[in-house]
Amino acid sequence: MNPIQFTDAAVEHIKHMLDKNPNAVGFRLSVKKTGCSGYAYLPAIIEQTIENDIHFTAQNDLQVYIDPKATEFLQDIKVDYVADENPGLKQKRLVFINPKEKGRCGCGESFTV
C-alpha cells in the first residue's frame, strides 16, 4: 500500500502541472517547520530526483517522492484537489487530509501533530 493516497482530482491536477514542465520527473512532498502551529506541507513538481527519497507510483502512473525526514508526518495522508469555500474566491488548491493533525493555525498554512 502506498504511504500517501491521492484522489483522482489531485492526480489529474498534478499530472497537468507535470505536463506543463517538460523536464519534470515527478511530484515531491515534504514538510518544513514554520508558521504559528509548527509545520507546513511542501508540495513540489521536481525536475531531479533526490537521493534517499521514498519513491512510489500512484494511480495514472504518477511518480511520487517523499522526503524521508517527513515520513512520520506524511504517512497515511490523503491529498485532494478542491475549490476553496471562501465566498467570492473561486480558487482550487491541493489539500492534505492528515489523520495525525491535532490542529491548524488560523490562516490554515501550518499544522501541529
As a percent range, the share of helical residues equals 10-25%
Task: Find the CATH superfamily.
Answer: HesB-like domain
Strand arrangement within the widest β-sheet reads 3-2-5-4
**What is the molecular shape?**
globular
Query: How much beta, percentage-wise?
Result: 35-45%
Distance between the termini: 23 Å
Q: Any idea of the CATH class?
A: Mainly Beta
Structural class: alpha/beta
Strand count:
9
Low-confidence stretches: none
Overall mean pLDDT score? Answer: 84
Number of structurally distinct domains? 1
CATH architecture: Sandwich
Round the Cα radius of gyration to an integer and report it: 14 Å
* Element order: H for helix, E for strand: EHEEEEHEEEE
**Biggest sheet: strands, sense, closure?**
4 strands, mixed
Number of helix segments? 2
At the fold tier of CATH, the topology name is: Hypothetical Protein Aq_1857, Chain: A
